[in-house]
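Input.
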Amino acid sequence: MRTIYEFLDIPNQMYQGSLTTEKRSDRQYEVEFRDVSFQYPGSSVWALRHVNMKFKVGERMAVVGENGSGKTTFIKLLCRLYDPQEGAILLNGIDIRKYNYRDYMNLFSVVFQDFQLLAQPLGANVAGAQIYDRPKVQQALVDAGFGDRLAKMSQGLDTMLYKEFAADGVDVSGGEAQKIAIARALYKNAPFIILDEPTAALDPIAEAEIYTKFNDIAGDKTAVYISHRLSSCKFCDEITVFDHGQVIQQGTHDALLADEGGKYYALWMAQAQYYTAPAQE
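Output.
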């Protein structure tokens, strides 16, 4: 355990801020990236360079681009897992570094592509706590598409996941694990909800179905969808195209597709063969 304690004792060098975030009942928040640039520690390459963009709560925004284009880095900065070396990120016109760190973090529910489930009961996995609102957890699982599987579990929310600590623990498939992770984000009920390619292991059509269903249950939240598959994000209010750490296009699916000289059009045409369900024999 010594190594773990040494890690936990590493001081947090991030400026914590003191302003409280507005607990707005109308959830009207506006986020702006103002000339933001970022390099990872030890790297000489800019992961993001001069990014400028705005979006408001309630919108559905897609962040698309090829692998390594800066999509996940953009989300890590938005969630303040890192601070940019240049520029500023603003929430309702105020630099996010001025907000209380934990207050600000509570605005976001994020499902990253490398999420982890724990060898704990199902309900505790969703809630992140041993004591939780059971009806709310159950509803989150149903909304995430896990309802049928939950109905077949004899111990319901008390079903232990995996067998490390329980001989009768239940193993879940990759797709089921993704639904549990999405239920976590729904249970937190934050104004911003972000899916960072948690469905990358699925085929493009299955991913698009999950994103579309998720859009229906996101309600008045801001939903940010990250994918290198463009079909998953056709329904969004705005699509932002990243390439080599920069925002090179923004607009609706139809508007971007109309620009036949643009990156979005090129990506769409390269991937279009995967977006059509195979014809039935």
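The chain has two domains: 27-107+190-271, 111-175.
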